[in-house]
Design a protein that fits this description.
Layout (H helix, E strand, L loop, with lengths): L5 H4 L2 H13 L7 H13 L5 H24 L10 H17 L5 H6 L6 H11 L4 H30 L3 H27 L15
């Protein structure tokens, strides 16, 4: 597969969307946003179906959120500590919570995914706070749908307006998405102040 050409990607992008978006729920450095945006850019060239890319990304986002939520709701975080990679992931989860905050409100569950690391932090914090499974599932589903629409839409808009090669449109979409995410993240962080949201009086011990 030649990833430098639209023909090289083709339908192969469908194979990668679900594992990468699900994996991103636990390990944020996985570039799932770039993949979904690339899908949108390819759709602008008529290489893939935009609606299918968005639907697969939304379902995968919801599934990944549910996995993290249930992992922490059932106090199974210690399972990760059995392996060296798992301990790194576990530590990364708590760092994400420390940066993004421990809010487990329904609004945070929907909106935090647009902030770098926020999706992981919101899902884990909701599990720790024992948010109702039904409420979380609904909010995660809505958030995943909005996120997938936004990411795929960025790629499609960049591709259809600039008429640049799909990879250039993808980079433009990623740049715009990252810029907006960083700005939102800075605003959220300042609103929370300097108080650490991880260790608070009366909090249950971490997993």
């Amino acid at each position: 597969m030649d990833i430098t050409t639209a023909e090289g990607w083709g339908a192969a992008i469908y194979v990668w969307i679900i594992p990468m978006v699900v994996g991103d729920a636990i390990f944020p450095p996985i570039p799932s946003e770039m993949l979904v945006i690339t899908g949108g850019a390819l759709a602008a060239e008529g290489r893939v179906n935009l609606w299918l890319v968005g639907l697969m990304a939304a379902v995968a986002s919801w599934l990944g959120d549910i996995i993290v939520f249930q992992l922490f709701k059932r106090r199974l975080g210690h399972v990760l500590d059995r392996w060296a990679w798992g301990r790194k992931v576990h530590q990364g989860i708590h760092r994400a919570i420390a940066r993004a905050g421990r809010s487990s409100t329904y609004g945070a569950i929907i909106g935090a995914r647009f902030v770098p690391g926020g999706r992981l932090a919101a899902s884990a914090a909701s599990g720790i706070a024992e948010v109702s499974s039904r409420g979380f599932s609904l909010c995660a589903g809505l958030g995943g749908l909005l996120w997938a629409t936004w990411q795929a839409g960025l790629g499609y808009f960049a591709g259809s307006t600039t008429k640049l090669p799909f990879w250039a449109s993808s980079l433009i979409g990623v740049g715009v998405g990252l810029l907006i995410g960083v700005v939102v993240g800075v605003i959220v962080t300042r609103r929370r102040g300097d108080r650490s949201p991880v260790d608070e009086p009366g909090d249950p011990p971490h997993l």
